[in-house]
User: What shape does this take?
Amino acid sequence: MYKALADAIAEAESSNMRLADVALNAESRDQGRPVEEIRAVLKRALDVMRSAIEQGSVGDLKSASGLVGGDAAKLRNDAHGPLADTVFREILTRALAVQEVNAAMGVIVAAPTAGGAGVLPAILTGLAKQKNVPDEKVVDALATAGLIGAVVAERASLSGAEGGCQAETGAAAGMAAGAATEMLGGTPSQAGHAVALTMQGMLGLVCDPLGGLVELPCVFRNATGSAMALAGIEMAMAGITFAIPVDEVIDVMGEIGREMDVRYRETAGGGLAATPTGRRLAKERLYQIKRSDG
Amino acid sequence: MVSLLDIIGPVMVGPSSSHTAGACRIGLLARCLVGGTPQRGVLQLHGSFARTGEGHGTDKALVGGLLGFKPDDERLRTALQIAEKEGLDYKFEKTTIADAAHPNTVRISVERGDTKSTLLGSSLGAGRILIQEIDGYPVEVTGNFDTLVLVAEDRKGSIARITTILAEHNVNIATLRLTRKERGGDAFMVIECDEHPDQDAAETIRGLEWVRWARSLDKVSGG
Assistant: This one.
């Protein structure tokens, strides 16, 4: 797989291919598997993403601690917000839905991780529905997203414990933005700018879940991360470019993660987890989980 | 090398790839050591597994793995109740394995009939795992391949004999690591295979008089 997005973009543009093709070819070469087999695995991932969205939209799920659940359904059914009936609203709903399923021990696709699993399905399936994109192209977009994620894994990190939330929902947003930009007809270079424009907005985001559980704020971070990805897509498709090259944006995300205090890396020692209410809720809820389990 | 399918995947029961999917895979490998669902299991949790494991379903995922459930099996949610029905008597303990151990580490001791075994494994993130110890022998098993682990007398031609048996059973070797403590002492072999070595291959190797101990572990991760 590529170690720099710039190399993948150059390869794609010089041979008149899409990033999706470049990614699938590289994976096929690396793993000794035919492209069709890789696409079949990605198609199954897409099916699981869609069924998680469906499951999470009903509103009958509760997480282990009871701290999250039911909010995707609220957003789906409410008519008051200024964005009702927009694709923006639809995407926020889908991101919450997947993450509520995850918190309730339902089946999701870790993309790149379970904690950031809502962003990519929300953006890709939400936009695909609005623009009538066939499944085959959504599968291509998953390949593009995988390429972007692999570069982030190589240059920075995809783990909240290593790099904070910028490495989980931040990476997920970057992956979704680049993949969707290409899916909607953007060039490989525009896709690269979409990644940079999105990830610059996620830099420095800490990982501060209450009680160390993948619940609060993780569920909502997937929605706000999706909003950031939409901003990146919208700007890149209008031809806006970001002056700092995308690989340097990824590098600096890794650098900030390494310098981030351990309290802000999934340990529940800082951020929202360490607020008075955060501590109280975590204590109450963890006690409840122990009791209900037996 | 990072694979695209490691990034878009695994398909798994939430909420945490390291606390749930990785834990389940470690449980699956412990199950392999005794060749089926154990009757008894003692699970010693270390670090973050001990601290936040319950909220992340780590307990359910580990026990689900012992029951043979894969990371995407929704029965993981009710694994603790299913264990009772299936006669798996499990016990969790919180412990400190070593200060330097990975934060998501567990030691699992399992019993099935006359067979007993213990492994030490860590969940490294994104569902990746590493088994570091089996029955006191240091190993490195990732679960990305069907793997044979064995301890044999350090004697000439032992590798040739074992690789021949595998070839005769149509198994191609992906990697082979051989270590020993001293010349003429016990040799540890970890053989990662491209194909699943069938029962007969494993039995034939186990039956060699100079093989002291051998275990076969299933592939539990990778696309």
In short: The first strand of chain A starts at residue 107 and ends at 109. DSSP finds 13 helices and one strand in chain A. Chain A touches chain B through 60 residues (CB under 8 Å).
